[in-house]
Amino acid sequence: MKRGAFATILILLFGFSLVYAPFPVRAETSNVSVTVLVTECSDSVDNDSDGEIDYPNDPGCSSYADDDETDPPPPTPPPGGGGGGGGEEGGEEDILLRRRA
After folding, report:
1. Which residues are CB-neighbours of 68 under 8 A, at least 6 positions away?
2. Would you say residue 58 lies in a domain?
3. For the chain, which has fewer Cβ within 10 Å, the N-terminal or C-terminal residue?
4. How far is CA 27 from CA 21, 24, 80, 94, in A?
5. Is residue 63 part of a domain?
């Protein structure tokens, strides 16, 4: 018998044994429960209506696991007033004008 014919016979016998199993085959099923965590920063929705969607685009999201898209408040100005000009008195120019008079 040639090698090719022997290999063909083996393949046919092996293939037949896969189709016809002389022993009982049991199929077992099981229930699997999967929980998927979808946070506000990973749900593809603009939850805070600021025009930005999810991490890393929304400034209210620190990560994909963040569940609040609310933007942080703007920084508070430094204390001390800081001038700003205007008003009736004050300013270097006003002081110079008073000395000349």
Report:
1. 40, 41, 60
2. yes
3. C
4. 14, 10, 78, 96
5. yes
This prediction's pTM: 0.44
Number of H helices, E strands in the chain: 2, 0
Residue with tokens 């685009």: 57
Confidence of residue 69 (pLDDT cuts 50, 70, 90): very high
Single out the residue of 18, 24, 69 nearest to residue 43, CA to CA.
69
Q: Domain residues for 60?
A: 31-72
Length of the chain: 101
Name the residue type at position 39: T
Token pair of 98, please? 């008073």
Helix or strand (DSSP H, E) at 22: none
Phi, psi of 94 (to 5 degrees): -65, -40
CB neighbourhood size of 68 (10 A): 13
pLDDT at 48 over 90: yes
